[in-house]
UniProtKB/TrEMBL annotation:
It comes from Phenylobacterium hankyongense. It is an enzyme of class 4 (lyase). Its EC number is 4.1.2.13. GO terms for molecular function: fructose-bisphosphate aldolase activity. InterPro entries: Aldolase_TIM (IPR013785), FBA_I (IPR000741). Pfam families: Glycolytic. This is fructose-bisphosphate aldolase. GO terms for biological process: glycolytic process. Keywords: Glycolysis, Lyase. Pathway: Carbohydrate degradation; glycolysis; D-glyceraldehyde 3-phosphate and glycerone phosphate from D-glucose: step 4/4.
Length: 120
């Protein structure tokens, strides 16, 4: 399992009390319902980058996939951590975000992510 080995070897996670000793658990089953609404036909001219822009937009908006919004501020992330009894430290926030992006099979359902500045 690539994600488990990634999590175990992450230097960020070694600093976090949140992840130490935790095991990764997979849900027994997951169900996702997605509706596809075809966009109205229209043409757009975006100079020499038009083809690349259209290709990127089609990839991001592909059926059955979405964008993971993980751009929570430090304060909002701190509220999530506090709800499980953890301090709002940079190491704990990074461990939380690492856990989100290392979920097995995430790439099957997510085509992009919105990040908070600290994540970069």
């Amino acid at each position: 399992m690539a994600s488990a080995s990634f999590l175990k070897s992450s230097p960020v996670l070694d600093k976090s009390d949140w992840v130490k000793g935790q095991s990764l658990r997979h849900p027994l089953s997951a169900s996702v319902a997605v509706r596809h609404h075809p966009a109205a036909g229209f043409s757009v001219r975006a100079s020499s980058y038009a083809d690349e822009l259209v290709k990127t937009a089609k990839t991001v908006a592909s059926p059955g996939r979405g964008i993971l919004a993980m751009d929570e501020s430090n304060a909002t992330c701190g509220k999530r951590l506090a709800s499980i009894g953890l301090e709002n430290t940079e190491a704990n926030r990074q461990a939380y975000r690492t856990l989100l992006v290392s979920a097995p099979g995430l790439g099957n359902y997510i085509s992009g992510a919105i990040l908070f500045e600290e994540t970069l």
